[in-house]
Structure formats: C-alpha cells, structure tokens
Amino acid sequence: MNHTGIELGPISPQLPNQNGHQQQQRPGNIPRQRFEDLLRNNQLGIVDNPLYYRNPEDILHDVEEFYEVHKLTDVVDVELLKRGALLARDRDEFMEDNILSSVERRALLREENPKFWQQTRELKTVLLTCCIGAIVQGWSQANINGANLFWPTELGLDVDAQGNPQGGDSWIFGLVNSSTYFAASLVGGWLSDPLNEHFFGRRGALSAAGIFSLAASIGSAYTQSWLALFFCRCLQGIGMGAKAAVVPIFESEVSPARIRGRLLVSWQTFTAFGIFLGASSNLIFHTNWRLQIGSAFIPTIPLLCLVFICSESPHWLLKGNRYGEAYVVLQRLRETPLQAARDLYNLHAQIQVETILFSRNQNVSIQLDRWDRHANNLFQEEFNRTNFFGRLVQLFTVERNRRASLAASVVMASQ
Known about the structure:
Layout: E1 14-16, E2 22-24, H1 35-39, H2 56-69, H3 78-89, H4 91-97, H5 102-110, H6 121-142, H7 144-147, H8 151-154, H9 169-199, H10 201-221, H11 226-254, H12 260-284, H13 289-294, H14 297-306, H15 314-319, H16 323-333, H17 337-358, H18 364-369, H19 371-374, H20 378-385, H21 388-397, H22 399-414
Antiparallel strand pairs: 1-2
Helix pairs in contact: 2-3, 3-4, 3-17, 6-11, 6-12, 6-14, 9-10, 9-11, 10-11, 10-14, 11-12, 16-17, 17-20, 21-22
Family: Belongs to the major facilitator superfamily. Sugar transporter (TC 2.A.1.1) family.
Protein name: Major facilitator superfamily (MFS) profile domain-containing protein
Membrane topology: Multi-pass membrane protein
C-alpha cells in the first residue's frame, strides 16, 4: 500500500526458506513498489509485463470493466478474456493452477521453442507480404546500376568516348542516382508517419509505398529526359522510405514475442535478396536499359495483391479503439483463442502504462500507481493529442527510448 492508498504490483526478490535456501516468491505475496520505480528499471520488465505486478483478483476486476467499456460481448467470452489476462500475468503459474484443454496446453508448450512452419497461415501470409516488400526495396536499389551505362548517352548528357558523363553533366548523373536515397530520407520516412498512424494503417501505408514503386518503375522505363528520370527516381525513393518505415514495424506487431527477433531479420535478408534479383535483371536485359530500370515493377504486383488479403496490425487497431477487430485478427494470427485473449489484454496494458510514462502530465507518479483505474482509453486519448514532432522529441526525452535510439544510431552509422 503506497501513499495514495493503492496497492501496487510486487517485485520478486529471493527470500530464505526454512532451510536457509533462497526461494522465489509468487507475485501478490511480497512487498510492493511504486510503478514509477518499476518503469524506470528495465531489468524489472514492468513495461513488458505490467500485469505481473498486480494481484489476480484485481486483474479479474479490471478485465470485467475492460470487457464492458470496449463492448466485446459479441466478440469474446469474458471468462476466456480473464483466463488470457492471467496467462499474460504469469505463464508458469497459470499452467500449474488452471485446467487447460489438450489443444491449449500443446500450443503453449510449443511457444517455448517455436518453429516458423508451425505458425498460423495468417501469420505466414503477413510475413510473406513483408518479405516481398523487402525484395521490392532491394530490387529498386540495384536495377539502375546496369542502366547507368546507357541512359546518360540516350538522354542527352555530355559523355566521353567511354560513355561516362563529363563536365557539369557528371553532377546531373550523380543527382539522378542519389535522388532515390535523398527522397527516401527526406520525404518517404516522414510521409510514413501520417500514412501509418492517421490514415491507412500498416497495410494501407505498405500498399501506398508499393504504388509509388510501381509507378516509378514503369515511368522510369518511358522517360525521354534526365529530368523526367530524376522525378521518377524521387518517386521511387519516397516508396522506399515509406516501405522501410512500415515493414519492420508491421512484422514486429504481428509476430509472437519469442520469435520476433528472428522474423525481423527477414527485412535485411530479403532486401539483400532483392538486390541480387535486381542485379540479375541487369544481366538478363544487359542491352536494354529501359527494361533494366523498369523491371522493378515485377515484385510490386504480388506485393499489392497480398497486402489486401493479409490482416491489419492488431496494435494499430487498438490505437483506433477497435478492440473487437483486434481480437478477431489475433485469433487468426495465434493458434488458440486463449493466446489471442492473452495478447489482446497484455497489449492493452502495455500501451496504457507506456502512455502514462511518456505523457507530459504533472501527476505522472499518481497515474502510474493507478493506471488500471482510469486507463481503458488513456492511450487513445493521449495519442490524439500528440503529433509526429512530439513523438520524435520523445525519442530523446524518454530514457528508455533514448538508449534504444542511441544504440540504433550507432549501428546505422557503422553500416
């Protein structure tokens, strides 16, 4: 019990038993700490699992209120949602103390050592879509390399006897080649935020990026001047920047926690594979630069087809307060309804607690201690008050984000 009169979740210290040995105590039976302290100590993992530090009885009461507020009556049974919340709180304790069907137990045990081919068809469809998006990314980067041998001459640049641009036209040549990456960083990356967060969601942002890539590839093959080619390469860069911003996020939001890291490697792997395919197309069409540069449209066709049949990110649906739809999606992404209920309530708890930590309110400490009592829509309300620049600032003002941003920046700079 803290100074606000609200009981908080426990830390799990090692306490001696009757024989003098150390033993791990269960949550709910040991002293409690303030949520603010827990949130600032990553080792305690409160942001990753805020439910662990709450009593089961409190969680069950919270679930009932959550169930009514978000009108889930026609979507999921409240008892299943309660079981899912308790599973999210402490998996080992839940499996010891609760009766599970053979299907549920097998699915939970399989999570300990998950295999990709054991995942649901819907999850594999989303991952396939993201992998093709990465192939488009790599192909778009590589296909101009072969075309660089021919287009300067055909589009009227001043070239020497070997066909290399010379004089002031060498700057034009460099501008056309670099425009893709400048457009990706200066426009595409920034454009992805409104596309993702406010308009179309993950699927819509990915399809918009695919349309940019498709139009740019076909347009590049029909250009009659270097200025038109420059414009098309800028469009290609916008598509690349938007894709790079959405695909890893989309993958992480649909993937099970235990294999999330492995699956996210697919972005870099399939981008490299796309570069290989783009280089191969340069060899296949080695005498026609228009076919070389236009060949990047090939992988965009399956990308645009798949993006309309895969599921939306449940995380994005929760942002829009569409909890019923999020649960339906999670049912398709997970093996059992119990796992879907677990992920729904756990995700809800995580984003509400994170929102309190990142908010600029004066009573953050009190809110952290009482997040369960008023947090059913806290994330959605706070998100509607923020914008891209506010979230950008939080990359540096929030300790947890600042450390991750610094590490990511070092890796990108070294690359």
